[in-house]
Design brief:
Layout lengths: L1 H18 L3 E7 L5 E4 L4 E6 L5 E9 L3 E4 L2 E4 L3 E7 L1 H28 L6 H17 L4 E5 L5 E7 L4
Antiparallel strand pairs: 1-2, 1-9, 3-4, 3-7, 4-5, 5-6, 7-8
Length: 162
């Protein structure tokens, strides 16, 4: 009974090592340690240099020379930019815009209930400044990494060949 458990444990471990074959797409900054890792199933947004179109979607496969986003394949040499979403900037932007709209609407509703001016000058200025700050920060929600020999580069690490 003891040998059966040992043999089944060894078989389970060996089968898990044999089935582990995954490729990683690495976007790394040249001469820096900054890098981003993508696997199959991750969301990615890239700009194609040939057609000047932006492809956004889930990575379905990673090859040595190309990636598949949805149903289309894109060669690495055709990728001009990779867009990376900044989560904290998205959160701050949505908070500022929502806060400005909420502040203006709550104060206006309060003005209707209390029978005084609906739009106070101070409230309008402060809520519009919140909305304006959120609109300015909207352009910083995504980082644009231009693929070039001296800025950013793409490479594939394939663990099935190790």
């Amino acid at each position: 009974m003891k040998y059966i458990r040992i043999i089944s444990l060894c078989m389970a471990l060996l089968s898990s090592f044999a089935s582990f074959s995954q490729s990683y797409l690495i976007l790394e900054k040249v001469n820096h340690t900054k890098s981003f890792r993508y696997t199959v199933g991750d969301l990615i947004k890239v700009k194609d240099a040939r057609f000047h179109t932006i492809f956004e979607g889930c990575i379905t496969s990673i090859n040595d020379t190309s990636i598949a986003i949805g149903r289309g394949f894109i060669n690495f040499k055709d990728i001009e930019k990779v867009y990376i979403k900044r989560q904290i900037m998205s959160l701050i932007t949505s908070f500022l815009i929502t806060g400005g709209i909420a502040y203006l609407s709550i104060d206006s509703f309060n003005g209707l209930l209390q029978c005084y001016k609906i739009f106070s000058t101070n409230v309008v200025v402060s809520s519009l400044s919140l909305i304006g700050a959120g609109a300015v920060l909207w352009s910083f929600k995504e980082r644009r990494c231009k693929i070039s020999p001296n800025k950013w580069k793409l490479k594939v690490i394939d663990f099935s060949k190790l």
